[in-house]
DNA sequence: CCGCATCCGATTGGATACTG
DNA sequence: CAGTATCCAATCGGATGCGG
């Protein structure tokens, strides 16, 4: 955050903060990212780790992340078909942010427990 | 992020990550927080800094932040009435997260420019 | 100055059923 | 296994107008 405090007129897609928010935005997204942080996963493996997440939303999240260049899809032939999802180099950049989200949440809970 | 990778079944409100996301969630919220980071602001000062933000949404954001204990409201008597909003101690805890959001966004833009 | 009330269109996420 | 296709309820954010 340089010295442009208080100057932004509206949320712009090119603002770094907005870019980062877009990456982690949407329900379940941080959980999907967390699972991918520990290594490549197939569609079903991800779905199994998040049992109450519908296939539609998982598809949407993965498509969004792929479009942002954060996740790469790899179709593996054979039958049954398999698809492997893994974080790209760009996706790895999100790790410190997820850690900071966790850290901040813990600090908030310590101050103001529920 | 301890070793509970891949275990969460659904987004739970008590998860630290969800707590942090709730704090910064919603359009404009990070911009409102950024303006408050540099000191107390009145309703109109905040609105002037974010000209395309409707009063309704600003009210909603401030009410939400207040309910989470991140922002404190102080009514100043006199006429016209004045209300001062400032970050609480808990709200100050969000500063490193905002910095990290900015940092991460910059890094993403460097890898994958728009 | 500081909001609240109301309405409304758009987006979101969940449920369900079906396909290559 | 890995999705797509619909449909639907709920939420969200923007616009406008009024009131303390």
Description:
The structure is a homodimer of 114-residue chains. Chain A is an alpha+beta fold and 114 residues long. Chain A has one domain: Orthogonal Bundle (Arc Repressor Mutant, subunit A), CATH 1.10.10. Helix content of chain A is 52%, strand content 12%. Chain A has helices at 16-24, 29-37, 43-49, 55-67, 89-92, 95-111; strands at 41-42, 71-76, 82-87. Chain A has a 3-stranded antiparallel sheet with strand order 1-3-2. Chain A is globular. At the A-B interface, helix 1, helix 2 and helix 6 of A face helix 1, helix 2 and helix 6 of B. Chain A binds a DNA duplex (20 and 20 nucleotides) through helix 3 and helix 4.
Tag the structure with descriptive keywords.
about 50% helix, globular, Arc Repressor Mutant, subunit A, alpha+beta, homodimer, DNA-binding
CATH superfamily of chain A: Winged helix-like DNA-binding domain superfamily/Winged helix DNA-binding domain
Helix content of chain A: 40-55%
Mean pLDDT of chain A: 91
CATH fold topology of chain A = Arc Repressor Mutant, subunit A
Instruction: Please identify the oligomeric state.
Output: homodimer
Could you tell me which chain pair has the largest interface and how many residues each side has? A-B, 55 and 55 residues
């Amino acid at each position: 955050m340089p010295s442009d405090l208080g100057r932004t007129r509206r949320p712009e897609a090119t603002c770094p903060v907005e870019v980062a928010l877009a990456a982690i935005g949407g329900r379940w997204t941080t959980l999907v990212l967390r699972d991918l942080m520990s290594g490549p996963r197939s569609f079903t493996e991800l779905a199994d780790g998040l049992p109450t997440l519908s296939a539609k939303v998982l598809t949407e999240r993965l498509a969004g992340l792929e479009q942002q260049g954060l996740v790469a899809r790899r179709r593996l032939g054979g039958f049954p078909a398999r698809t492997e999802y893994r974080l790209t180099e760009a996706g790895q950049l999100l790790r410190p942010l997820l850690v900071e989200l966790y850290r901040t949440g813990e600090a908030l809970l310590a101050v103001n427990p529920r």
